[in-house]
Design brief:
By secondary structure, the chain is mostly helical. It contains 2 helices and no strands.
Length: 100
């Protein structure tokens, strides 16, 4: 019988170029907002509003390149909605911090 024995271990692979490289572990994105001087609460995790607005603008431009100009009003409405929602979220975090 020429089938391999399932009870034997395979030889270990040598390190080399044929081996898949491991991707680095996912790291949380922490933004040092103190360097910009616009975060009095000391929150370093969440983007401030000007940075978030810039992010939304760039994302909307990218989406419109894909969708085309017919979608401009819908994309802009969604961006405004997301901005208002994020602003409310930051206010809720700030208010919750005052109570702890």
């Amino acid at each position: 019988d020429e089938r391999p024995n399932p009870n034997t271990r395979r030889p270990r692979r040598q390190r080399g170029s044929d081996r898949r490289q491991r991707t680095p572990k996912r790291q949380e994105l922490l933004i040092d907002r103190d360097s910009y001087g616009d975060d009095p609460s000391g929150n370093k995790f969440w983007m401030d509003l000007p940075m978030f607005k810039d992010f939304l603008r760039k994302e909307a431009q990218f989406r419109l390149k894909i969708l085309g100009p017919d979608w401009k009003e819908s994309v802009m409405d969604e961006s405004r909605w997301r901005y208002d929602l994020y602003k409310t979220w930051l206010q809720a975090i700030d208010e919750g911090r005052r109570w702890t």
